[in-house]
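This entry is set out below.
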Amino acid sequence: LSDRLGDKIYKCRVLNSLGWVHGEIYNLETAIRYNREGAEASYMVGDPEIIRNAEINLGDDYLLLGDLEQAQSYLEQVYGAIQQRGRWGEEWMKWRYSQHLYHSLGELWLTKGDAAQALEFAGECLELAEPTLSRKNLVKGWRLKGQALLAQGQRDQAEQALSQALTMAREIGNPPQLRKTYQALGALYESQADLARAQAAYQSAIDVIDGR
């Protein structure tokens, strides 16, 4: 329909959304294909928002695949781009996709073993998400903060952050965020040698996947 109407911007957004959906269900080959198509089409349009959403999605896809170099390339490219000012469309929705970007960069650095950098990006995510009441990104920010604190050995503070994430994840009922938060809590309890609570948290994560 977008092709027939000549609506290039919405075609880009549809491709990006399809890429995001397939990434959420770990259908990564298809996700990358859609996000690449979305990025290529977006560059032809020249709209910063849709370009950056496609590239953040690609960063997430490659992070899930374990290709940290490719993930870092896409995410840092967007990070550098958002420092620009005065370009057409520059500020449109930047407050929103920057939350996504900061969380993704935090996950990247946590995976690379740099908990301090992950904690910094968690703070950046929360700083934007809190005043805008972006609840899903609040879950992501609090969870990342808890995971980074756990990696630093600060278990009590990690538990507080993860409990905050779980409260909000339950409130919004977003299955991927619930599953990931239960899984993070399971890792925390396991590190505390509290195997009963760890098992319960992991079982809750499985229940979310099973739709129970």
The longest helix spans residues 28-45. The radius of gyration is 18 Å. DSSP finds eleven helices and no strands in the chain.
